[in-house]
Fold this sequence. Notes:
By secondary structure, the protein is an all-alpha fold. It has helices at residues 2-12, 22-28, 34-59, 66-79, 84-94, 104-119, 121-149, 154-180, 185-208, 210-215. The longest helix is centred in the middle third of the chain and has 29 residues, at 121-149. The protein is globular. The chain starts with a helix and ends with a helix.
Amino acid sequence: MNTELSYRFDDALRERQLLAHPFYRRWEDGELAPSELTHYAEQYRFFEAMMPSFLQGLLEQLPHGTARDLVTANLVDEVTPPSHLELFSRFAHHYGARDVDVSPAMAQLVEAYATVLAQGPTPALAGLLAYESQGAAVADTKGEGLAAHYGASEDALEFWREHGSIEGDHAAWTFDALASLDPDLDQVAAGARVVADAWWNFLDEREALREVLVTA
């Protein structure tokens, strides 16, 4: 079952591997303008602020047992001081992020998480895993790029280093939680794709704003 689950999940993320997106490739190569990092931080903060409530909502749908215990561990990591939102705020502050309105693509991303949560534990866990399965590699690449090209302080790097070290565990926990539910594989594929598409669209929005932000 776990092999089939892994296959269906991986197939749902086909062509949605975030490190292949042009925005992240430019990040890794040191080609982002400072204003692009600022704007990215201003919007990504909405995702970080949403995540604890998403995990809490997921917990409320899970019976006592393996899945609930693993999601609880994930939530504990998310909110234990300094919380992930606090660590992210240090990164955002370093690059001059301000309080701004949510962008259309970030609003759609937050809504994607709400959608899979409303559909039940299997779609919600699959949606959560869609990002977490890539999270460690994404965080490592971002941190390396920030250190090499963008003058990041230690405070600015801490969020990405933390995620590089723990997201592998979170992905494993979420996969095991999903597997423990004996999930419907069609629901797994659909939930994963909803969130994966929303992340891809958010990065598309970053690219669409490239010329505006670079010349501003």
